[in-house]
Amino acid sequence: MKTGFKRLFSVLLLFPLLLAVSCAASSKAVNIDKVKEQYLTGCRKLESGNFKDAEAAFLAVLEQGGKTAYGHTGMAMLEADRGNHRQAAMHVKKALRLDSEFPDAWIAKGHALAKRGGDDDWFSEASEAFDKALELTPGDERTLFYYAESALVAGKFDIASELYVSIAIKKEQLAGRARARSVLATLLMDAQPVRQSCIDIGLDDTVDRADLAVLLVEQFEIIEFVGKHRSDLYRELYRKNGPYRVNRSKIRKETDDERARECIYAVVQLRLAGLSQFPNGFFYPDRVVTRAQFASLVQSIAAIIGHDESLTTRFIGSDTPFSDVRNDYYAYNAIRFCVENGLLSTISRTDEFDPGGTVSGAEALVTLRRLANMLEKNEEKSTAVNR
User: What's the CA gap between 158 and 114, in Å, rounded?
Assistant: First the structure.
């Protein structure tokens, strides 16, 4: 009995010492300042698109400060950007469980929801997450920026614009990026309504031939347009054995994207200028579209749907108003047609069109919206005259 008591007494005497050693070791193991710095390094790497170094930084944070929310927050942002939605959600859950008062964990939740998208309620849930982050750090520009980006992806262009403007007026670190994104959001507002499936293209800096095929079929609804305004052409082109054979096998080899393939099959039937199959049967879906090529496409659509081939020759032989487009340039008539009708514009406050420049997704959406409105108005006028 005495021996047992002595052993118990010895353990009790050692317990404070063991506890002190444990606390000292724990304190020594987690250097919170170092963890924060490593986390911020990972965030900078992630925002610059360097996923590899960002992951290394966040994993180092998890190793050094596993009981803090920093590491899981960083990994949630990274996995969201990679498209690994399940892993992102898991890391968000762990981060909030560790520290529900950490603003970045709420930002990560909103960002992960935006990247996942899907159901109609995701933006409401993401908004609640961003609002919680703003409640913890009122007016934080980083939170506002991610909030705006989520609104943009959700097609809430007016909300996105307001948020970007609120960042820009602060004149802090993200002011320049916010101003540029505000311009984009305003441009997309002019293209409304924009189908949710086409918003991702609308956010791209450039569009390729596959992108345009998707926009024409899903956003512009060109097949329906042809059926409504050119029923004769619709019956001819889209009957079971139409006059034009589409070389599907070659297009199938060029892209694994089933959505893009189906849109390409539909569009090439129209043999639009700038968006047809090449003589070798290939479509070259990944080729970036130039402004001259896009103008040619727009003119071709207007001529076909409006049943007016004179549109394609109206300005031939006239003096050019552009300093960088001669009147014998292959797309001169198309460029002139688009500019004269307000479908495309010259480079801001100049007489240059930049025919070899690229077309952004937002610019393509706005132009197609204007073209649709123009064609509808022309049809209304024509119907009124024939009554």
Answer: 17
For 174, phi then psi, to 5°, come to -95, 10
CA–CA separation, 111 and 286 (whole Å): 29
Task: Please state, in angstroms and rounded to a whole number, the distance separating the CA atoms of residues 323 and 326.
Answer: 8
Which amino acid would we find at residue 195? R
Instruction: Give the span between the Cα atoms of 37 and 208, in whole angstroms.
Output: 40
Instruction: Give the number of other Cβ atoms within 10 Å of residue 330's Cβ.
Output: 12
> Look-up: residue for tokens 């930002």?
107
Which burial class, exposed, middle or buried, applies to 136 when counting CB atoms under 10 A from its CB (0-12, 13-18, 19+)?
Answer: middle
Burial 91-125 (b: 16+ CB within 10 A, else e): bbebbbebbeebbbbbbbbbbbbbbbbeeeebbee
In this prediction the pTM is 0.84
Residue 199 tokens read as: 């918003």
Query: Cis peptide leading into 103, omega within 30 of 0?
Result: no
286-338, pLDDT tens digit by residue? Answer: 999 999 999 999 999 999 999 899 999 999 999 999 999 999 999 999 999 99
The per-residue pLDDT for range 169-211, each reduced to its tens digit, is: 999 999 999 999 999 999 999 999 999 999 999 999 999 999 9
CA distance 351 to 335: 12
Side chain identity at residue 50, one-letter code = N
Q: Where are the beta strands (DSSP E) in 200-348?
A: none
For 99-146, what is each residue's pLDDT tens digit?
999 999 999 999 999 999 877 789 999 999 999 999 999 999 999 999
